[in-house]
Amino acid sequence: MQVPDIIIAIDGYSSTGKSSFAKIIAKEFSFLYLDSGALYRGVTLFAIENGYISDDCTIDVPGLDKALTGLDLHFGEDGTYIGERCIEKEIRSLEVAGKVSPIATVAEVRSFVDMKLREFGKERRVVMDGRDIGTTVFPDAELKIFMTADPMIRAERRAAEMRAKGDDVKIEDVLKNLQERDYIDSHREVSPLTQAADAIVLDNSHMTMDDQMVWLRNVVSERFGC
Ligand code: DC
Question: Ligand 1 pocket test: which of 10, 35, 36 has the largest number of ligand atoms within 8 Å of its C-beta?
């Protein structure tokens, strides 16, 4: 499929399969894939390891803000890196998942991440997933998709993913974490998770990846005539 130079913004609730979907789209359309959540997770790991967030999620905002100027957080061959260190495994832990939403409420953290994301969008041909890509980072994205799915189905998918990586997790804990993140993400003051007025909703509760790709190709060919 010959797709024009566009930005595809995929937003939605946690564990709706945004990144798996975005990766397949990137491969099929030869687009660059960017996981914006990984940058929030990277900042969270950095904050945990350097004492900018406590166990009860109190954040030292001025300290963290100052430290961000020297933080070399970037994407590399095996995912997300701080300097030379690959942090891909650590940023997927339940500890980071439990602290990332409070960290993502901090305005200074959001501008740090937004700046990095906008750099990548300059050339278009990018598919990016997150919570505020279509509303804040790229409000001019040519295609905006808002993903949702039944919470229990999402928790089961996420638990299976974590178990496959060797984490022994309970479904109740995963569901609780998802619901807490949904709440914080949708209720924060800065760039809350909301559906952009021009986004198309995709509820994939009962869809396979193939079903989703069929859906997407239809949307793209109708909208861009390709
Ligand atoms: O997509 P994810 O689960 O890896 O995202 C981790 C957290 O980062 C999520 O709870 C909210 C935050 N996030 C955000 O606030 N804005 C984005 N564009 C992406 C993620």
Answer: 36
